[in-house]
Specification:
Helix content of chain C: 25-40%
Strand content of chain A: 5-15%
Order of helices and strands of chain C: HHEHEHEHEEEEEHHEEEE
Strand order of the largest sheet of chain C: 1-12-7-4-2-3
Largest sheet of chain C: 6 strands, parallel
Radius of gyration of chain C: 21 Å
Number of strands of chain C: 12
Largest sheet of chain A: 4 strands, parallel
Strand content of chain C: 15-25%
Helix content of chain A: 40-55%
Number of domains of chain C: 1
Low-confidence stretches of chain A: none
Number of helices of chain A: 13
CATH architecture of chain C: 3-Layer(aba) Sandwich
Chains: A alpha/beta, B alpha/beta, C alpha/beta
Structural class of chain C: alpha/beta
Number of domains of chain A: 2
Oligomer: heterotrimer
Number of helices of chain C: 7
Largest interface: B-C, 105 and 79 residues
Mean pLDDT of chain A: 96
Low-confidence stretches of chain C: none
Number of strands of chain A: 7
Distance between the termini of chain C: 63 Å
C-alpha cells in the first residue's frame, strides 16, 4: 500500500509567498511524489510558542495534529516549522489526550530537502537555470542547527545546471528574524540583519538561496531597503525550475 | 532592571562605534580560536558529550560530592564554610578578615564575588581590595563592571586604557600593550607581597581529593593564592565534580572553548593550606560554598543551566551579544547563559527582557562544550513570564486573537485574505511596503515588508485539482 | 539549622524524587589531545613548549646541562636565585655552579625571595601533547621558585615525559592520589605567563615569569 504523504505548506508559503508553496509542491512532483494537501491546515503554532504563549500555541497545534494525524510522512518547505513539530510537539502534548498522535506526527515530519535526499534518495531533479548564476546558501538556523540540514540542499543544488555554488562567510550566521523577535527587539534584529547584508554584499554571488521563507522575507526586506541588486530565493523555487 | 532601560542601553550600544569595533574583534577572534582548537581534538562532539555527562553526574549527586569535598579539605587542614546567600558569603569573608587582622586583600578573578558584590562589602569595612587580573584591575580602576566572562575589558580601547593608567597611577602615556602590561606588573608585585589575604574563584572542585582547580594565563591567580598568608576560595555549589578523569576533559574543553588554547598557562591545583613541611604557601585555607538560588535551580526544570563551566563560548558565538556587548545584560553574567541565569538567580521579573533578547538561532548551544540547550530554556523562561502575567494586555489579547483565528481554517483563510489585501493596497503596486502600523512599525524601521502574493497556495491548489480526490479531509 | 544543613537539605530535597539527568552513566573516557601512534614524545614536547613561547635547550648529559644553566644565568645577569633543593633536581652540581658564579641563593619569606632574578626547579612530569610541566610543592620545593622571578629555569630529564594529562591522572589514580595529600599545590605550567586583555593583543610575561626555559637532559641508560 502506498505511503500517504501530506504536504504542509506553512502559513507563510500559503498566504505571503504562494509561489513558494507551489514551487515546493512542484519539486515533490518532479521527485515522483504527489502528496495529499489536507485542506483544513493552518499553522504549526510556532509564532505563539516562541513568544512564550504555550496555551495559545497548543490550541493551534491541536488543530495541526487533527489535520495531519494518520499520515506516514508530512513534508514542509520550512526547517523552522519542521523543527517546531519534531522538537517541541512531544513536550507540548505531554499528558494530552492526543499525545500519541502528536508523537506519531513529530516522528514523521520532514523538511523538504531532508525528505528528498534522505527519504526519497533523490539527487538530480533535472533542473537548469535560465542563465549562468552564482549563488550562496544562507543556512537557516532551525533547519541547520535544529535538524542538521546542510548537506542536503548543497547536494541537490550541485546538480542544478548553470548554477555555481559559493560558500559565503557567515553562511550560518542568524539573519535576525527570530519570529516576533524582529518586532519586539527590532533594533537588535536590524543590527543582525545589517551583518547578514554585509556578508551577502561581500560574497561573490548574484543570488542567495535559503530553505526558510521567513529568512528570505527578512533578508529581502533588508536588501530592498538598501537598494541592493541581490535577492534571496527559496530553494524550492530553484529546484522547481521556477526562477526567471 | 526596567524594561525601558534595556532598549535604551541597546540603542546606545548599537550606536557606539568603538564598542562595535571591539566586539567584532573580540568575538570573531574568540569564535575562530575555539573552532580551530576544537577541530584539533580527537573528536570534538564525543568530547563535548563526555564533558556533558561529567557535569550531569556531578549534579545528580551534588550533596554527596560536596560532603566528600568538605571531608577531604578538612583532612588536608583546610576549612569549609557554607553560605546560603550573598550576604552570608560576604559575612564569612569579613569574619575571616577580622580573625586574621586583614587590611589588604588581593583577588583573582571570581564571578561569584561579583554576584555577591564582595568587594563593596570589604571596602565598606575599610579593607583594601585589589583585582589582580590585568583586565579586572583596569576595570576596577575605571569603576566599571566586566563585560565578558573571560575578557572583562573587551569593550575598552588601548587608548582609553593608557589614559586611565596615566591618570590614576602616573604611567607615562603609551599606545603599546606591552608597556602598559609591564607597568601594571610592577604595580601589582607590591600588592601580592603586601596582601594579608588572597581570594580566588574556583573553576572546578574535585571531590575525590578535596582539590580546588583554577585556570589562568597571567599568573595573578597563583600569586594571589600563594603569596598572602591566607587563601579564601569562593565557589558556587554547582562547581564540584566527581573525579580527576572528569577534570581532565572539562579543564581542556574549558581552555579550548574560552581562548582556543590546549591548556591555559597555569592550572593551579590547591589541596588545602601549606603542609607543615612546605617552605611557602598560605597557612590557612578556606573554601566558601555558595548557594544563592542554585539549589532551587537544581530542583527546577532549569537544572541544566548549572552545568555551565563559564567558558564564555556562547557569548562569542551569539549574534545578539556580538551586537550589544555585555553591559546590556544588566548584571554579572552576560550573553546567552546570562540571559538564563540572571532571571533564575534573581527572579524572572527582575530581567523580563532578557529571555526575549534572542532569535533562538542555537549558535550558543552549538558552541557550548557541555551541550547546554540554552534556546530551550529561553523558551521556558518566556513561557514563565507569560504565565506570570508579564506581557502587556495588548500582546496577550493579540495572541488570544491569533490563536482563535489560526485554529479555525475559515478564520485563518479570511484573515489571510484581509491581511493580503491590506499589504497590496499599502504597497501601491511596488511589491513591498516601507511602513507598517504599530506594533509592527519596528519591522519597517529597518527593512521593507512584502506585499502578499495572491491568490493563496490553497486557492491555487483547489483550482488545479478541483474535483480530484486529493484530500479526504473536510475543508 | 546551620547554613550547611540548610543547603544540604535543600539539595537532597531537590534530588529526592528523581535525578535531573537520568541515564548519565560514565562514558568511556577518551583523551582530548591527539597523539599519533609511535609519535616521538620528546620531539612533540619540545615543539609544544616552543608553541607556547617557552624555550627548550637539549643536553646530552649532566655537564652539558650545567653549561646551559650557566649560560642562561649569565646572559640574564642573574645575581640571586630561588630554587628547589638539589635533592629534588635531576642534576647534581647546580648549587656548586651558583657558588662559582657568585650567585646568591635566596630563601625565606616572600619579600626576600622577590629579589631573585631567576627561579630554578625540577618537574615531576612533563606532558608531551601540550608542552606542560607538572610541579608539586613540598619540602625543599617552594612554589615561588616557578612564580615570582622573571626567569624560570626548569630542569627535566627525558624519562619524565609522558604523553598527556589523562596519563598523568591515570598514574596518580594508580598511586591513590597521594600527591594531593602530600602537596598543597600542584601546578601545571604551559609556557610563559600571558594576557590578551588589551584589545586582544597578546602580551607575554604578565604577573608570572616572563620567560620559561626548559633544560631537557637525556637519560643515560
Amino acid at each position: 500500500m502506498a505511503k500517504r504523504v501530506a504536504y504542509f505548506v506553512t502559513c507563510i508559503a500559503d498566504t505571503v509567498f504562494p509561489e513558494i508553496g507551489e514551487a515546493a509542491f512542484e519539486v515533490l512532483a518532479r521527485a515522483g511524489v504527489t502528496p495529499e494537501f489536507p485542506l483544513g491546515q493552518t499553522c504549526c503554532g510556532q509564532p505563539a510558542f516562541n513568544a512564550g504563549f504555550t496555551d495559545e500555541a497548543r490550541q493551534v497545534a491541536e488543530h495541526f495534529v487533527e489535520v495531519f494525524a494518520g499520515y506516514e510522512a508530512i513534508v514542509t518547505p520550512s526547517g523552522s516549522c519542521a523543527s517546531m513539530v519534531k522538537h517541541y510537539y512531544p513536550a507540548l502534548f505531554r499528558g494530552h489526550p492526543r499525545q500519541a498522535d502528536a508523537l506519531h506526527i513529530a516522528a514523521r515530519t520532514y523538511e523538504l530537502t531532508e525528505y528528498l535526499v534522505d527519504v526519497l534518495g533523490v539527487r538530480d531533479l533535472g533542473v537548469a537555470l535560465p542563465r549562468p548564476t552564482r549563488a550562496a546558501i544562507h543556512d537557516a538556523c532551525h533547519g541547520y542547527r535544529g535538524l542538521g540540514i546542510a548537506r542536503q540542499p548543497r547536494l541537490l543544488l550541485s546538480h542544478v545546471r548553470n548554477l555555481t555554488l559559493v560558500e559565503m562567510v557567515g553562511h550560518d550566521q542568524c539573519c535576525g528574524f527570530g519570529g516576533l523577535f524582529a518586532i519586539k527587539m527590532s533594533a537588535i534584529s536590524g543590527a543582525m540583519l545589517r551583518d547578514k547584508l554585509a556578508a551577502i554584499q561581500d560574497a561573490d554571488c548574484d543570488l542567495v538561496i535559503t530553505g526558510d521563507a521567513s529568512c528570505m522575507m527578512h533578508i529581502n526586506g533588508g536588501l530592498s531597503r538598501a537598494g541592493s541588486p541581490k535577492r534571496v530565493v527559496h530553494i524550492a523555487q530553484v529546484l522547481a525550475g521556477a526562477l526567471k | 532592571m526596567k524594561a525601558e532601560s534595556f532598549e535604551k542601553i541597546v540603542d546606545h550600544a548599537l550606536a557606539d562605534r568603538q564598542l562595535q569595533v571591539a566586539l567584532d574583534r573580540g568575538t570573531t577572534r574568540g569564535v575562530n580560536a575555539r573552532l580551530l582548537a576544537m577541530s584539533e581534538t580527537t573528536d570534538a562532539q564525543a568530547l563535548r558529550h563526555q564533558a556533558r555527562l561529567a557535569r550531569e553526574r556531578a549534579l545528580n549527586q551534588l550533596p554527596e560530592l560536596l560532603e566528600q569535598l568538605e571531608r577531604n579539605i578538612i583532612a588536608n587542614g583546610g576549612h569549609v564554610l557554607w553560605a546560603r546567600d550573598a550576604a552570608e558569603l560576604n559575612q564569612h569573608v569579613l569574619t575571616i578578615c577580622r580573625q586574621h587582622n586583614v587590611r589588604r586583600v588581593v583577588k583573582g578573578k571570581s564571578m561569584v564575588t561579583e554576584e555577591t558584590a564582595l568587594n563593596h562589602a570589604l571596602e565598606q569595612e575599610g579593607i583594601d581590595v585589589v583585582e589582580s587580573d590585568l583586565g579586572e584591575y583596569i576595570i576596577q580602576l575605571a569603576g566599571e563592571t566586566p563585560s565578558h566572562i573571560v575578557f572583562p575589558m573587551l569593550h575598552k580601547t588601548k587608548e582609553a586604557t593608557a589614559q586611565l593608567l596615566h591618570d590614576k597611577l602616573g604611567m607615562p602615556l603609551t599606545d603599546q600593550p606591552e608597556a602598559m602590561t609591564r607597568f601594571v606588573r610592577g604595580v601589582m608585585r607590591q600588592k601580592y607581597l603586601q596582601a594579608d589575604l588572597g581570594i580566588s574563584g574556583v573553576n572546578f572542585a574535585i571531590a575525590e581529593t578535596g582539590t580546588i582547580a583554577t585556570v589562568e594565563n597571567e599568573g595573578n591567580n597563583r600569586l594571589s593564592i600563594s603569596a598572602p598568608p591566607v587563601h579564601v576560595a569562593v565557589m558556587g555549589l554547582e562547581k564540584v565534580i566527581a573525579t580527576w578523569e572528569d577534570y581532565a576533559v572539562l579543564v581542556q574543553l574549558l581552555a579550548r572553548s574560552a581562548t582556543g588554547q590546549r591548556m591555559t598557562v597555569y592550572n593551579n591545583l590547591i589541596s588545602g593550606p601549606r603542609r607543615p613541611d612546605e617552605p611557602d604557601g598560605p597557612e590557612a585555607f578556606y573554601l566558601i560554598i555558595l548557594d544563592n538560588g542554585r539549589s532551587r535551580i537544581l530542583a527546577s526544570e532549569y537544572a541544566e543551566s548549572l552545568a555551565c563551566i563559564r567558558c564564555g563560548a556562547c557569548l562569542n558565538a551569539c549574534p545578539v551579544y556580538q551586537n550589544i556587548g555585555g553591559h546590556a545584560y544588566g548584571w554579572v553574567y552576560p550573553g546567552p547563559i546570562g540571559s538564563i541565569i540572571t532571571p533564575l538567580l534573581r527572579g524572572p521579573l527582575t530581567a523580563p527582557k532578557l529571555p526575549y533578547a534572542s532569535s533562538l538561532c542555537g549558535a550558543c548551544q552549538a558552541a557550548c562544550p557541555v551541550e547546554i540547550n540554552i534556546p530551550d530554556m529561553l523558551l521556558k523562561l518566556r513561557r514563565d513570564l507569560v504565565q506570570a502575567g508579564d506581557p502587556s494586555l495588548g500582546w496577550r489579547l493579540g495572541m488570544k486573537g491569533w490563536a482563535v483565528a489560526f485554529k479555525s481554517p475559515m478564520l485563518y483563510r479570511l484573515g489571510g485574505r484581509i491581511a493580503g489585501w491590506l499589504t497590496r493596497v499599502l504597497a501601491r503596486g511596488k511589491g513591498h511596503l516601507r511602513w507598517l502600523p504599530p506594533p509592527f512599525n519596528g519591522w519597517t524601521a529597518h527593512r521593507d515588508f512584502p506585499a502578499f502574493g495572491t491568490p493563496s497556495f490553497r486557492e491555487r491548489y483547489l483550482r488545479r485539482f478541483k474535483g480530484q480526490p486529493h484530500d479526504s479531509k473536510k475543508p | 539549622m546551620s547554613a550547611r544543613e540548610d543547603i544540604l537539605t535543600g539539595l537532597r530535597a531537590a534530588l529526592a524524587h528523581s535525578k535531573p539527568f537520568p541515564g548519565a552513566e560514565p562514558a568511556a573516557f577518551q583523551a582530548v589531545t591527539r597523539i599519533d601512534p609511535g609519535e616521538d614524545l620528546v620531539a612533540r614536547f619540545i615543539a609544544e613548549v616552543q608553541r607556547v613561547k617557552g624555550e627548550v635547550h637539549t643536553a646530552a648529559n649532566d655537564d652539558e646541562a650545567l653549561d646551559i644553566t650557566k649560560d642562561l644565568l649569565t646572559s640574564h645577569h642573574v645575581r640571586r636565585v630561588v630554587m628547589w633543593d638539589e635533592a629534588h633536581l635531576p642534576l647534581r652540581g647546580v648549587w656548586a655552579l651558583l657558588e662559582r658564579l657568585g650567585i646568591e641563593r635566596v630563601y625565606g619569606d616572600n619579600a626576600s625571595v622577590a629579589a631573585a632574578e631567576a627561579g630554578i626547579t625540577g618537574a615531576d612530569w612533563a606532558l608531551a601533547a601540550t608542552g606542560t610541566l607538572v610541579l608539586s610543592s613540598g619540602p625543599g620545593r617552594p612554589r615561588m621558585a616557578s612564580l615570582l622571578p622573571p626567569l624560570h629555569i626548569a630542569l627535566l630529564t627525558e624519562d619524565r615525559i609522558i604523553p598527556r594529562l589523562e596519563d598523568y591522572v591515570a598514574a596518580q589514580r594508580a598511586a591513590r592520589f597521594g600527591v594531593f595529600r602530600r602537596s598543597s599545590n600542584v601546578t601545571l605550567i604551559t609556557g610563559s605567563s600571558r594576557t590578551s586583555d588589551i584589545e586582544m593583543h597578546p602580551v607575554f610575561g604578565v604577573h608570572g615569569p616572563l620567560a620559561l626555559h626548559v633544560v631537557l637532559i637525556k637519560n643515560l641508560d
